[in-house]
Design brief:
The complex is a heterodimer.
Chain A (H helix, E strand, L loop, with lengths): L37 E5 L4 H12 L5 E4 L10 H6 L7 E4 L2 E4 L1 H11 L11 H13 L4 H18 L6 H23 L12 H15 L9 H14 L1 H12 L9 H14 L2
Parallel strand pairs in A: 1-2
Antiparallel strand pairs in A: 1-3, 3-4
Chain B lengths: L2 E5 L4 H12 L5 E4 L10 H6 L7 E4 L2 E4 L1 H11 L11 H36 L5 H23 L12 H11 L13 H14 L1 H12 L11 H11 L4
Parallel strand pairs in B: 1-2
Antiparallel strand pairs in B: 1-3, 3-4
Helix pairs in contact in B: 1-3, 1-6, 1-8, 4-5, 4-6
Classes of the chains: A alpha+beta, B alpha+beta.
Amino acid sequence: MGSGAWGAGRARPCGRGPGPLSPVSPAWRGRSAPAMGLELYLDLLSQPCRAVYIFAKKNRIPFELRTVDLRKGQHLSDAFAQVNPLQKVPVLKDGDFVLTESVAILLYLARKYKVPDHWYPQDPQACARVDEYLAWQHTALRRNCLRALWHKVMLPVFLGELVSPETLAATLAELDVALQVLEGKFLQDKAFLTGPHVSLADLVAITELMHPVGAGCQVFKGRPKLAAWRQRVEAAVGEALFQEAHEVILKAKDSQPADPTLKQKMLPKVLAMIQ
Amino acid sequence: MGLELYLDLLSASCRAVYIFARKNSIPFDFQFVDLLKGHHHSREYIEINPLRKLPSLRDGKFILSESVAILFYLCRKYSTPSHWYPPDLHMRARVDEFMAWQHTAIQLPMNKILWLKLLIPMITGDEVPAEKTEQMLAEVKSNLKLFEEKFLQDKMFITGDNISLADLVALVEMMQPMASNHNVFLSSAKLAEWRMRVELAIGSSLFCEAHDRLVKLAEWDCSTLDPMVKERIGNLLQKFK
């Protein structure tokens, strides 16, 4: 495990213990509450990480960013397994409390930092609408956006695996269906997915859609309603923050091919993830 | 018109909602939408849920889908005992974490066992290649191990000393393969003991009643299956093969 593992350029030392970040012992390792504030283990290549990142930044929630470079296989390291045995991002660490699953993390942050009500409304019916979207998307839009990125770009470019035109076409067709549901069932004629104000549902949805966008899919073409909604969500989040969070995914096709050892490690897991 | 719940207890998601409502004495009209007869594709039901899935809730003009959303809604509206969805930030987050994880880690694979071991052979007359079934069972085994190590650990229930929505959802989903004679609790004493605790906390008679239709599924005469429904199932099955 090298010193670069936790994005040494970005993780800031907490100022306690044996001194500045040493090459052998990253600042977060072996620490427990209350030395550290909130830590978020993220790679902005990942959709759920983008939602968590944007939400935390937008609401000025102070956190230490711990970059876990997925394309270097850092999520598969023994060190990261100490943080999350499920070997996935995002992960939240708040003292001794470790939390996975972006939806759970978003809700935790919303409650702990008492963010504006519109993100996750108190009103039971408005709240239910957000819950409904957040539940639906796991096996629907999320899955389709992930497959679109991997089938179109990441499998061929990063892992050197050919994807047949038929497979890609089928994936894009499924994405199309999910987009129709997004527009027809969730958005309809409203300003945002669950009502007149931006909520966690919109944030989770938009970050998902940027996955196929990063893969070069024109998801907003021929969908003026969805395109208009996108503009509104970007404006609500803040354009600068939105651009910043999406820099990495928009360069996905420039990914460096994985070396054979890493490819061997990652391929079965990727295939399981996108099935 | 009071609360209506559109359900077929063959579905784990429906059982979770049903058990929760009954356990908390929430008054509702049980609107049976027979999955085996394809009634989720009926014009009447499509008006309730165009995605044609169960369960759905209707509360006056308010219609809601997704069992997780429905469970949270019922908790809040009927002010159910707090252990179901604890107010403590960390405990609540644990429930949320499980509810998010289970969609792909538990619900999907548990359903797959049912399809591979019972429904596909029953409906199509085809056996599923043993290799596919083995692969599926291995995935389930590994996820159940994760469930024990990460969510249950050495606690009585997922959030600690009391049952919550997470235990309810987990258990009804793990019951799904029972209809194909596959008992996931046999492989782990810890899991079996947790199951007994959850059943007791719910009440054995309510639990058994909720699972009656599921455990009798093997007796279903699928020759009466509507050809259109059979075709739809055929298309769905391609995903599993």
